[in-house]
């Protein structure tokens, strides 16, 4: 299953509302996660099962969608949110990731 | 809280075999979790390599299946990756990760190692 994220890069300011989209080439039901990765670090799960917030993740992060179209929304960007974001499906193995969305400071 | 730590050579010669180990601490490897390897070439995205259950059952990425072997050592609470016939394209940051089982599969990775950079070069 191929995962396609848009946009690939995004410039935004602190306080902005940001939305990243992930599309699957086949239905993955609700089996989708969102990760945040900072340079040289391991990815960190933010959202799983499309819309469930991982424990300890700020509530400004939210996820929605099902089947083939999903979104990650950050309601009010904070300085620590500038990073690369990946979606990943786990409907069936072979698990696959989107190509990433790099969120940069405007 | 479970912690994962990768270890292994940082440099492998072309056509050789890349071997890494992931030590699991703070919890048993013999749980309902699956244990995966994920890699990331420099400046690129994430690629899932394969996973193993404590019973020894495995699933591999078809694109790498002919070269990959993942094994588990319950007595040492660790699992390992062997990738054979490596080329420069296998140069990457290699992560181990814990997969949370769902009704579908176990690819929601809730814990990760810090990653280890492996360079393939003569």
Number-wise, the strands of chain B total 11
H-E order of chain B: EEEEEEEEEEE
Helix content of chain A: under 10%
- What is the typical, i.e. mean, pLDDT of chain B? 96
Quickly count the helices of chain B: 0
Gyration radius of chain A, rounded: 13 Å
Note the gap between the termini of chain A: 33 Å
Helix/strand order of chain A, N-terminal first: EEEEEEEEEEE
Alpha carbon gyration radius of chain B: 14 Å
Distance separating the two termini of chain B:
39 Å
Classify the beta-strand content of chain B into a percent band: over 45%
Shape of chain B: globular
- Oligomerization status of the protein chains: heterodimer
- SS-based class of chain B: mainly beta
For the sheet with most strands of chain B, the description reads: 7 strands, mixed
How many helical elements of chain A?
0
User: Which term fits the overall shape of chain A?
Assistant: globular
SSE layout and pairing:
The complex is a heterodimer of chains A (106) and B (122).
Chain A: E1 3-6, E2 9-12, E3 18-24, E4 32-37, E5 44-48, E6 52-53, E7 61-66, E8 69-74, E9 84-89, E10 96-97, E11 101-105
Parallel strand pairs in A: 2-11
Antiparallel strand pairs in A: 1-3, 3-8, 4-5, 4-9, 5-6, 7-8, 9-10, 9-11
Chain B: E1 3-7, E2 11-12, E3 18-25, E4 34-40, E5 47-52, E6 58-60, E7 68-73, E8 78-83, E9 92-100, E10 108-112, E11 116-120
Parallel strand pairs in B: 2-11
Antiparallel strand pairs in B: 1-3, 3-8, 4-5, 4-9, 5-6, 7-8, 9-10, 9-11
What's the short story on this structure?
The complex is a heterodimer of chains A (106) and B (122). With 106 residues, chain A is mostly beta strands.
């Amino acid at each position: 299953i191929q995962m396609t994220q848009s946009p690939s890069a995004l410039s935004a300011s602190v306080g902005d509302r940001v939305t990243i989209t992930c599309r699957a080439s086949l239905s993955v039901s609700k089996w989708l996660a969102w990760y945040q990765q900072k340079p040289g670090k391991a990815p960190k799960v933010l959202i799983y099962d499309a819309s469930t917030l991982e424990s300890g993740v700020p509530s400004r992060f939210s996820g929605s969608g099902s089947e083939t179209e999903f979104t990650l929304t950050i309601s009010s960007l904070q300085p620590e949110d500038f990073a690369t974001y990946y979606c990943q499906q786990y409907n069936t193995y072979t698990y696959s990731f989107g190509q990433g969305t790099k969120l940069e400071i405007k | 809280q479970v912690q994962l730590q990768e270890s292994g050579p940082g440099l492998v010669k072309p056509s050789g075999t890349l071997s890494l180990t992931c030590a699991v601490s703070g919890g048993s490897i013999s749980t309902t979790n699956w244990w995966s390897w994920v890699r990331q070439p420099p400046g690129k995205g994430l690629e899932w390599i394969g996973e193993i259950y404590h019973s020894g059952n495995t699933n591999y990425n078809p694109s790498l299946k002919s070269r990959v072997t993942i094994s588990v050592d319950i007595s040492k609470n660790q699992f390992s990756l062997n990738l054979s016939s490596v080329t420069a394209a296998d140069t990457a940051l290699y992560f181990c990760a814990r997969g949370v089982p769902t009704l579908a599969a176990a690819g929601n990775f809730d814990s990760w190692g810090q990653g280890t950079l492996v360079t393939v070069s003569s």
